[in-house]
């Protein structure tokens, strides 16, 4: 499927699912309407246009490694906007976690193929997510479920002009084969329900409960979960790189969280 159309269909389904189960409506203050629109664009439209298009031009390995830089970039952005310097343990733990993720993803094959356009677009996705994580905190006074639903709804609507542009550039080509592919349909439904509707609810709620620094470091858990799933479902035994990388990730997250607690006490 075309990358932007895929993002649109994914979040259109997510919007319908969330609207079906979340019937509550709230009246936002005027200034917060801007934050709703901004977070919708950054966390839905901008992020997935950058990511989906990037994967046409770069490898999944490059994209995974670049996506794993979100905690570092958020830490730098947080310190810059708050005009404070985070505890050194935050940076050390985050760098250690990123190193562990790199070992997990590369899996002993320390060869990367640079794809300038795709890699730059992927960094655009990272920056979009950092800004999204920062701005979503402005809406914590409202119900998390309603905010998450509205963000996905407006983000879906903002996809429309980009989808139309994509159709024009593709000369109106229609990908009918996707509609007849059961695996593709199942994949889209999984992305829409689990990786969009439910995941955004969890992410936004987690920020309220634990703070953005802790939550962004949680991104480092993704490859560990992948290894566990790979072992249990596909019966692939982790190699030495996977085990060593996972240990580094866990150590990095532990150290970074220690830094967060020390900062709170100070």
From TrEMBL:
Sorted UniProt keywords: Cell membrane, Membrane, Transmembrane, Transmembrane helix
Q: What transmembrane ranges does the database entry give? A: 6-26, 33-50, 56-77, 89-108, 120-139, 151-172, 178-203, 215-234, 240-256
Name the InterPro entries for this protein: AA-Vitamin_Transporters, EamA_dom, EmrE-like
Instruction: Provide one Gene Ontology cellular component.
Output: plasma membrane
Is Electron transport there in the keyword field? no
One short Pfam name that applies is EamA
Cellular location of this protein? Cell membrane
In the UniProt record, the signal sequence range is: none
Q: Which domain of life is it from?
A: Archaea
Look up and give the membrane topology term.
Multi-pass membrane protein
The EamA domain extends over: 1-105, 117-255
Put simply, this protein is called EamA domain-containing protein
Instruction: Provide the organism lineage as a comma list.
Output: Archaea, Methanobacteriati, Methanobacteriota, Methanomada group, Methanococci
């Amino acid at each position: 499927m075309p990358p932007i159309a895929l993002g649109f269909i994914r979040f259109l389904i997510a919007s319908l699912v969330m609207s079906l189960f979340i019937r509550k409506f709230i009246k936002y203050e005027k200034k917060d309407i801007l934050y709703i629109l901004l977070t919708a664009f950054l966390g839905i439209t901008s992020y997935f246009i950058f990511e989906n298009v990037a994967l046409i031009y770069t490898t999944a390995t490059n994209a995974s490694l670049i996506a794993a830089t979100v905690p570092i970039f958020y830490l730098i952005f947080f310190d810059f906007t708050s005009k404070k310097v985070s505890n050194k343990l935050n940076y050390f733990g985050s760098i250690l976690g990123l190193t562990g993720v790199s070992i997990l993803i590369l899996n002993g094959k320390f060869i990367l193929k640079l794809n300038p356009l795709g890699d730059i677009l992927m960094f655009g996705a990272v920056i979009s997510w950092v800004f999204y994580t920062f701005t979503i905190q402005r809406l914590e006074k409202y119900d998390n479920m309603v905010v998450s639903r509205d963000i996905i709804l407006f983000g879906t609507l903002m996809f429309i002009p980009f989808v139309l542009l994509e159709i024009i550039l593709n000369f109106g080509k229609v990908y009918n084969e996707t509609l007849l592919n059961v695996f593709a349909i199942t994949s889209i439904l999984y992305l829409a329900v689990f990786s969009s509707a439910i995941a955004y609810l969890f992410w936004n709620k987690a920020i309220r409960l634990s703070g953005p620094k802790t939550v962004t470091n949680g991104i480092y858990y993704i490859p560990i979960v992948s290894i566990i799933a790979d072992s249990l479902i596909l019966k692939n035994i982790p190699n030495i790189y996977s085990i060593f990388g996972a240990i580094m990730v866990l150590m990095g997250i532990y150290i970074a969280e220690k830094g967060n607690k020390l900062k709170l006490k100070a």
